[in-house]
Design goal:
Chain A has 14 helices and 13 strands. Chain A is of the alpha/beta class. Chain B is of the alpha/beta class. In chain B, β10 and β11 form a beta hairpin. Chain B is globular. Classes of the chains: A alpha/beta, B alpha/beta. The complex binds NADP nicotinamide-adenine-dinucleotide phosphate (NAP).
């Protein structure tokens, strides 16, 4: 399979590393052999029909290096608006879209996915912004162009939460689900609880340790969790056919308002505060908000953990726990999608 | 409120009318958020199609003749509205396209779409210019494709990819609408996923308007034309015909199927699905409320108190009924499929279908204009079904003795279809009986009958001369309103 990868940050590099590490296994177990025919980062693209060497690509993405434009087959890209055209004409079979999640301007990424599918490429996305704002449009594009659209990395990284959610609603009536889906807020809340720190100092600590980004809004204001909630609800699907739910339909409250005092109060009653996503299948309402949960309960997950609890009418509660982020964790989900596409398209 | 205001060709016929339409939009913009949608100037789409045909046939002088008509009408309008330069630019692109078609001697569906798109593209410039003046701030003009409407590649009759279109239109237009920027969108035209101009065929600019309405979450969609709204019957046939103040989507869709001056059912779909009322209004009598098509409060198809069972009695004239019969059809699977496949392949529009109880015959009603084509298609494809007798006499090698029981294909020309429509007909006993006794009392002979699948209508065929009388009889019986 000829691959085009957009975005060579943490996850993009992880994908190249994992493709190398698992090359023999992918070929022998699944008959999947890949060739990297195109890459793009924020400044340029590189195209090579015969395949770009992973090591060379990783080389130009080391800190301080000049990016893919500096590859022998590379060139700078004047505008990111040109990228969809480039992808459509790249001759690739699969686009792997690992650009930044920009919830407030999801269009560039959405356009890349639509252009790729319009040109007959299968698509793998790890980027939550397009899937959580334009789910119906993207699935329509996949259907009319007869291509596959996969995005399991968007929720739970390596932990196959979307797969579980779909399997659950296929066999049973969904009552609802609850989940913890964001590591940054989980870490900050744990810090506040264990050290009695204020939100601001816990956030600063999280930023120092690399748990939180310089602009933490996406995480601490709940948007990352809300996007994932919308994607689970659409994918399962937890909503009736013909309906869709976007991140803007999720009532979202972040953790900025949680004080050290709140933690102490909760603790006194044997509870902890977590940023919990919930979906009620009766009212079709989704929300994200800080909630008190009993210490030691299934929602009381450690800082790096994500959990999805699905409540089914007949089968009862299902739980899936796993790590929700990380370079190789997320890359594993991308490879899972790749194998899935290879097997399904056959 | 958020409004979509769509102006048809008659509202766009010349600079004065365009200025008037623009003033209606400008006035609405003072209180509401508005998007204007425009059709080509009256008659221009036909002229453009003629250009495409003449060009394909290599008839240079006819191309030039029609082109010069199009040019003079558009140049004078553009001159009056102050957008001559951009209009000339479009006209010269149209001319080179026609020249290109003549050079290759072939006009693909894709090129034809490109040719007809010029009508809406030019009228969009006109409306934008007039609206800019009327509002005192520049208006933004969009082609349907630029506005975000994407279709498949079936040029000439392309289907919008609805979810993608809704998302893109919302994305591109919502911020402008929110900011009350005057926006004009060309109706009827869209683009494919790869950015090639396409047209959406049936429903045309009305369809564009309802798609925009659905995408933007409009409160109402106004369809402006030169009529007051929908009538209970054609006033030329029924002097007492009344304007319908309101009706349901289901009724309007049914009326559209039977030739009432309604919207194409396809164009009503996005509005019905998103529950956005559509108001049909007269550009030249803007104080009239027009006809409101919407869902009755609470129940989508409920009858309002005091409403008659039959709301409207549309009639299709110049119709013909083709009956395909033969004992060979009895119990033979695939007959109906073969018949409809043949008609579809010949692009015949079927207005009514009846099947005899014995299965030995199927009748379809088509327009007189399509009769010859339909007949030829059926003669060719139905021969295996009507040419031999399979039930009563097993096929022998001597085919000359196995003549069909019926005469194969039978045509009754010059008929009319009358189709009383109303939500109140559904599940109400006796309505159908009343319709037919009313017709019988006038001594009119009914040739065939079919019940609409939605139970909102029943349609029957009568001789063309009996049509108006039948319409009057039903209208009078139910005192339609
Ligand atoms: N990290 C995780 O654990 C995780 C887990 C699940 C999902 N995801 C999602 O996966 C995606 C990638 O995450 P990441 O952690 O790898 O992010 P990242 O390290 O910030 O990398 C983003 C990459 O996208 C490139 N990029 C930025 N703007 C671009 C543009 N306009 N056109 C093309 N490329 C552009 C960047 O180019 P430069 O290299 O030139 O800056 C960079 O290579 C995000 O959408 C994220 O939400 C991440």
């Amino acid at each position: 399979m000829r691959l085009f990868i957009v975005g060579l940050g943490v996850v993009g590099k992880g994908v190249l590393e994992l493709l190398d590490a698992r090359r023999a296994e992918l070929a022998s177990h699944f008959g999947v052999e890949t060739r990297l025919v195109g890459v793009a980062d924020s400044k340029g693209v590189a195209l090579c029909e015969d395949g770009l060497a992973h090591a060379e690509v990783l080389g130009v993405k080391r800190p301080g290096a000049a990016g893919v434009a500096s590859l022998p087959d590379g060139r700078p890209l004047a505008s990111q608006d040109d990228l969809p055209e480039v992808i459509a004409h790249s001759g690739a079979d699969v686009l792997i879209e690992l650009g930044p999640t920009q919830m407030r301007s999801p269009r560039p990424a959405t356009d890349r996915l639509l252009a790729a599918m319009g040109a007959g490429l299968h698509v793998i996305g790890a980027n939550k912004a397009p899937l959580s704002t334009a789910f119906a449009a993207l699935t329509e594009a996949a259907a009319v162009n007869n291509v596959l659209l996969r995005y399991s990395a968007t929720v739970g990284a390596g932990t196959p939460m979307l797969t579980l959610a779909r399997a659950a609603v296929m066999g049973d009536t969904l009552v609802g689900f609850r989940a913890i889906l964001n590591g940054t807020t989980n870490f900050i809340l744990s810090q506040m609880r264990s050290s009695g720190a204020t939100f601001d100092s816990a956030l600063a600590e999280a930023q120092r340790l690399g748990w939180a980004e310089a602009d933490p809004s996406n995480d601490v204001d709940g948007w990352d969790t809300a996007m994932k909630t919308a994607i689970i609800a659409c994918h399962a699907p937890a909503i009736p056919p013909g309906r869709s739910i976007s991140v803007h339909d999720v009532r979202t409250v972040g953790i900025r308002g949680v004080s050290a005092r709140d933690h102490a109060d909760a603790e006194a009653q044997g509870q902890v505060i977590k940023l919990v996503a919930s979906f009620d299948a009766t009212t079709l309402s989704a929300r994200v908000e800080p909630v008190r949960v009993p210490i030691g309960s299934r929602l009381d997950v450690p800082a790096g953990g994500n959990v999805l609890l699905i409540d089914l009418k007949h089968a009862g509660e299902l739980a899936l726990f796993g790590r929700g982020a990380g370079a190789h964790e997320t890359a594993a989900a991308v490879l899972r999608d790749l194998v899935d596409i290879a097997l399904s398209a056959r | 409120m958020k409004l979509i205001m769509k102006f048809g060709g008659t509202s766009m016929a010349g600079s004065e009318k365009i200025r008037h339409a623009a003033s209606l939009v400008a006035q609405a913009l003072r209180q509401h958020h508005v998007v204007a949608v425009v059709s080509a100037m009256d008659g221009v789409t036909e002229q453009l199609l003629a250009i495409a045909d003449h060009a394909e046939a290599g008839d240079r002088s006819s191309v030039e003749q029609v082109l010069s008509q199009v040019r003079s009408a558009h140049e004078s309008t553009a001159d009056a509205l102050g957008c001559l330069a951009e209009t000339r630019e479009l006209l010269s692109r149209l001319e080179s396209l026609a020249t290109g078609i003549m050079a290759v001697g072939e006009c693909t569906a894709r090129s034809r779409d490109a040719v007809v798109s010029f009508g809406e593209r030019m009228s969009t410039r006109f409306m934008a210019a007039a609206l800019g003046v009327a509002c005192g701030s520049p208006a933004r003009g969009f082609d349907g494709g630029d506005a975000g409407i994407v279709t498949n590649n079936h040029f000439g009759e392309a289907d919008p990819l609805m979810d993608i279109s809704l998302m893109q239109v919302r994305d591109r237009l919502a911020p402008l609408v929110e900011a009350r920027t005057p926006v004009v969108v060309a109706g009827f035209i869209a683009q494919t996923q790869s950015g090639v101009m396409s047209t959406i065929g049936r429903g045309g600019s009305d369809y564009t308007a309802t798609i925009l309405g659905a995408a933007l979450g409009a409160d109402e969609i106004h369809i402006w034309s030169d009529v007051d709204g929908l009538m209970t019957a054609d006033p030329r046939l029924v002097p007492g015909a009344r304007l319908l103040s309101h009706l349901t989507f289901a009724e309007a869709i049914e009326m559209g199927k039977f030739g009432a001056k309604s919207m194409h059912p396809r164009a009503l779909e996005p509005a019905a699905e998103h529950g956005i009322p559509v108001r049909m209004r007269n550009t030249f009598k803007p104080d009239n409320p027009g006809t409101l098509i919407g869902s009755a409060v609470g129940q989508p198809d409920a009858r309002r108190p005091g409403e008659t069972a039959v709301r409207s009695v549309p009639m299709l004239k110049n119709m013909a009924m083709i009956t395909v019969g033969g004992a060979g059809m009895i119990g033979r699977p695939g007959t109906a499929a073969a018949l409809f496949d043949a008609l579809a392949a010949a692009r015949i529009n079927v207005h009514m279908i009846c099947q005899s109880v014995s299965e030995a015959g199927i009748s379809v009603v088509v327009s007189m204009a399509q009769l010859d084509r339909a007949k030829t298609a059926l003669e060719r494809s139905m021969r295996p079904f009507i040419g031999t007798r399979t039930i009563h006499a097993p096929a022998t090698s001597d085919t000359s003795t196995s003549a069909p029981v019926l005469h194969g294909i039978d045509v009754v020309g010059n008929i009319a279809i009358v189709a009383p429509v109303g939500s109140g007909m559904r599940g109400v006993p006796g309505v159908v009986a009343r319709i037919f006794s009313a017709v019988a009392r006038k001594n009119l002979n009914i040739i065939a009958i079919a019940q609409g699948s939605s139970e909102l209508s029943v349609c029957f065929a009568v001789d063309k001369d009996a049509g108006p009388e039948a319409v009057r009889a039903v209208h009078e019986e139910f005192d339609s309103r």
